[in-house]
Prior knowledge:
Helix content is about 50%, strand content about 10%. With about 500 residues, the chain is an alpha+beta fold. It has a single domain, classed as CATH 1.10.630.10. The strands form four sheets. The protein has a five-stranded mixed β-sheet with strand order 2-3-9-6-4, sandwiched between helices. Strands 1-8-7 form a three-stranded mixed β-sheet. A hairpin with a 2-residue loop joins strand 2 and strand 3. Helix 5 (about 120-145) crosses helix 6 and helix 7 crosses helix 8. Residues about 1-5 and about 485-490 have low confidence and may be disordered.
Amino acid sequence: MSLATTSTSAPRPLHSLPGPTPWPLLGNAPQVPRGRFHQQLEAWARRYGDIYQLRLGPRRYLVVSAPDVVGSVLRRRPDEFGRSRRMEEITRAYGFLGLFSAGGETWRRQRPMVLGGLDPSHIRDYFPALLDVTARLRTRWERSAGQSLDLQAELTRYTVDVTTGLAFGHDLRTLEQDGGEAIQDHLNVVLPALYARVLQPLDLPAWLRTPAQRRAERALQGHLQALREAVAGFIARTRTDLEREPALRERPRNLIQALVAARDQPGSGVCDEDVAGNVLTMLLAGEDTTANTLAWLVWLLHSHPQALARAREEVDTVLGGAAGVQSAAQLAELPWLDACVQETLRLKPAGPLVMAQSLRETVVGDVLVPSDAIVVCLLRPAALDARTFAQPERFDPQRWVGGAGAVHAMGSAKRQVMAFGAGPRMCPGRYLALAEVKLAAAMLLACFDIEEVGTPGGGEPAEHMAIVMAPVGLRMRLRPRRRPATAGAAGA
């Protein structure tokens, strides 16, 4: 048994903790709305404290929100905690068993391949592709100027084109069309089904399923088979590209080239199934996560005109009249925009909770946790702690750039905001996600005035939790902006 506390007192048993009163047989499940799962758990944390229990069916869950305890659990992965075995089983069956959902030896085998494909040097190699998709987003918004746009749908098109271009080496170009594309149509069926199944405590046996459920399962299997065949084709095409142009093994243009090159290294220990699982995982983790962060950022900036004006002034100065960022180096010259992104991640993290399953009996905080228990780590309460963040509910990017009003002890603040997780399983795609967000935001600020961003009823958009947390019902209207003319500006 390992300990996560220095206390000399005996740890408390899990069943002794406070928590919401469960219903007979069902536990607290009827009290947890699926789309607002994270908000209900946060509300219970305010009532019962930063460590409490709940029950879903017969099973007890430990819920923690104190940053030191959350950080301890996340950093003790993968040796003492892993993804839930149910998630690993389901994603393996679906063909999505990548670094996000794998555990144990599978995770260890895949990790070097994926980290190598998503490290900062490779992101620089992918930069021309990122610039191209961002320019296409600008063109789309120029054509639709003055129209009321579904902000989430617009940004999802952007992240789909980035993600599929880098993951598959196959650009869907959804920004240039209004209909769907085959791969995206399959994903639109598979991803919600995967999420719904992961949340179910158990699978119904076939003889208990309704005819409609059996038809839906057959249709789902058809979509999954089509995705597997498509990915196998992309891997085969990538091998052909690498044989024809061996230099791509050192300087890949997309993630699938980097993964196949790493897989083909002697002694890599990985196989084509590992490559396929991580390519599909990138689509699962990359589309909505980045699109939602961008949507929250646009809404928050529009709601705070002074922060928006300062971000625009910074973008104009750095870009010198260009229509968008032209190089990776320019991203580092936008500290205020970066601060706006960090503040968005603090207030509206795309992943506000992480679930981990204990691999052995252990202690979390001062609680004895049995083997196979599920620990739910709530990430947002620490980021809204008034002891670290003055007026924590307020959008204030100044916290992240120093000077008056900045967070006291910045290192402590960064330890409390764990939007990309912590420890060995920290999100490997964080560099790519931040680059996408800042590229799109800089282009928007340089080229457009935001006339309107909001919900039909006004007020703050509701949060909806599916695979990630999304704003509900945001619409946007833009007006083309005359960019400042500066001598030598590129890309105007």
